[in-house]
Amino acid sequence: MQSSEIRRAFLDYFKARGHVQVPSLPLVPAGDPTLLFTGAGMVQFKPYFMGLAEPPAKRLSSVQKVFRATDLDEAGDTSHLTFFEMMGNFSVGDYFKDQAIDWAWDFLTNVCKLEPEKLRITIYLDDEVAHDAWIKQGVPEERIYRYGEDQNYWFSGDVGPCGPDSEIFYDFGPQPDCDDCEPAHDGHRRFLEIWNLVFMMLYQHEDGTRTELPTKNIDTGSGLERMAAALNGSPDVYMTDLFKPSIEMIEGLTGRRYGDEPGADRAFRVVAEHARALSFLIADGVSPSNEGRGYVLRRVLRRAGYFGRSLGLTG
Ligand code: SER
Known about the structure:
Elements: H1 3-15, E1 20-21, H2 46-49, E2 59-67, E3 83-92, H3 97-111, E4 119-124, H4 128-136, E5 144-147, H5 149-152, E6 153-155, E7 160-171, E8 191-204, E9 210-223, H6 224-232, H7 244-254, H8 262-283, H9 292-310
Parallel strand pairs: 1-2, 4-5
Antiparallel strand pairs: 2-3, 3-9, 4-7, 6-7, 7-8, 8-9
Bound molecules: serine.
């Protein structure tokens, strides 16, 4: 599947299940001074989860453009991006864990036709409801992993809606850097997180205490680039149609080939990734400066320049 087909299939799937499609927010969120950038699909739904505004529908879906400055240093490996598109389905006090899990599994295995054996599941420690829902889908016990808050809990910030989550990983099989490992291991290419289902039911206060939100909600996020990589059978998102034209352009400008020189591949990826991120940031009104958003933009620009020069791109 090409990325445009994945996007379409996702939105159609959830539309057929009663979800109202909502347009992406800009990368600079209006009306939320706590955020520098839109970093998740749920940003525009936060007031609904908190009971502060009435949603247009209880079931919502979107493909949200997202920028995560926190991933800047990791960008340049084969799967972390500062800018990406996040597909998501959301429930504001409507369906909850069972239904969210059932649809995610159905979409991956029956619409995208990913092999069930290639999917691994992580859940929050004692989340037996999520565990049983995955077992009901036919996921065997040995492909379900339990992790603590560092892995399977999602926070929208130090203060705000949060909740335990369950993640779906795609298994690309043993890799040279990691053979017998598990989804939570970082820095390897065997497992790629392709979907996060957040059971958004609590609110974290400034003092760290948590109270229940007025409704039990669902917030899911699936990175389009990673889903395309899983469907492409390679853990490298730069081999998907979303990045191929940029990689080919860099090849044309440098006379080098992506994949030929391991030492240069990272630079290829950084330049391709940052060029895309910069374009979207600038299009959404960010310009270089010495502080705030503009300073982040400047850092991305400098990093792109540094890696670009290492490839021989000048001028
Ligand atoms: N909010 C969660 C995330 O960004 C799921 O959408 O991963």
